[in-house]
DNA sequence: CTATGTAAACAAC
DNA sequence: GTTGTTTACATAG
């Protein structure tokens, strides 16, 4: 129990580590005995959508109008996304194909399911959404999901939520009868609940 | 080999 | 039926 809180800044930001044999990919072999929990916890990759934005934008100078999305995002992204204006629909042309690992695009940026869910959570009121709310947000904001094939992508959403336990946190919904609340697992760091991390994988 | 997507069986509610 | 969990297989890189 004492080992859990023993982290230092270098643990959070390994790039600051002086010696830094940056081998995160191998922590399973090397470091797991030490702090597998933390290793898993901070396994979460970057969720820097702005960075993603820039990369994709600079890659395709074709759409100069996209540069403005950068500002929008930085502002606050109040994407009530009214009715997905026809322009939006246009930008997601049928000739625009995504590699298989990026099934949908948000604001023109191809993203994986994980990134899409993360985006939905990030844009929610308090970072917590029910499964249904995740569905709804994605349906509102991802035109690729408008093809009437909800069963397919919704299955993938559920699969992602369950599979990536180090990325997503499931929390009981205080409202009775409603399904769990999902959030980014990094929130565990700030949980005031001491101790009960629920899942004992025997 | 790893990350991801897709399909599907299954349990719990 | 919905929500989660899990296994299996396919494919891109």
UniProtKB/TrEMBL annotation:
Pfam families attached here? Forkhead
Name of the featured protein: Oidioi.mRNA.OKI2018_I69.chr2.g4758.t1.cds
Q: Does the keyword Amino-acid biosynthesis apply?
A: no
The Swiss-Prot or TrEMBL record marks DNA binding at 108-185
Q: Which species? A: Oikopleura dioica (Tunicate)
**Residue ranges of the Fork-head domain?**
108-185
Q: Which coarse location class applies to the principal site listed for this UniProt protein?
A: cytoplasm
Q: Mind telling me which SUPFAM superfamilies this protein's record contains?
A: Winged helix' DNA-binding domain (SSF46785)
Q: Where found? A: Cytoplasm; Nucleus
Keyword annotations for this protein? Cytoplasm, DNA-binding, Nucleus, Transcription, Transcription regulation
């Amino acid at each position: 129990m004492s080992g859990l809180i023993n982290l230092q800044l270098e643990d959070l930001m390994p790039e600051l580590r002086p010696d830094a044999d940056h081998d995160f990919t191998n922590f399973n072999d090397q470091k797991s005995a030490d702090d597998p929990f933390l290793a898993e916890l901070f396994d979460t990759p970057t969720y820097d959508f702005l960075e993603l934005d820039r990369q994709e934008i600079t890659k395709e100078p074709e759409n100069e109008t996209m540069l403005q999305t950068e500002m929008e995002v930085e502002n606050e992204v109040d994407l009530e996304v009214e009715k997905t204006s026809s322009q939006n629909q246009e930008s997601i042309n049928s000739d625009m194909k995504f590699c298989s690992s990026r099934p949908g695009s948000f604001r023109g940026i191809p993203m994986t399911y994980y990134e899409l869910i993360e985006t939905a959570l990030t844009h929610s009121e308090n970072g917590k959404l029910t499964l249904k709310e995740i569905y709804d947000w994605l349906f509102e904001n991802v035109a690729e999901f408008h093809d009437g094939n909800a069963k397919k992508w919704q299955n993938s959403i559920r699969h992602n939520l369950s599979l990536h336990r180090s990325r997503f946190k499931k929390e009981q919904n205080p409202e009775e009868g409603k399904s769990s609340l999902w959030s980014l697992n990094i929130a565990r760091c700030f949980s005031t609940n001491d101790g009960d991390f629920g899942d004992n994988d025997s």
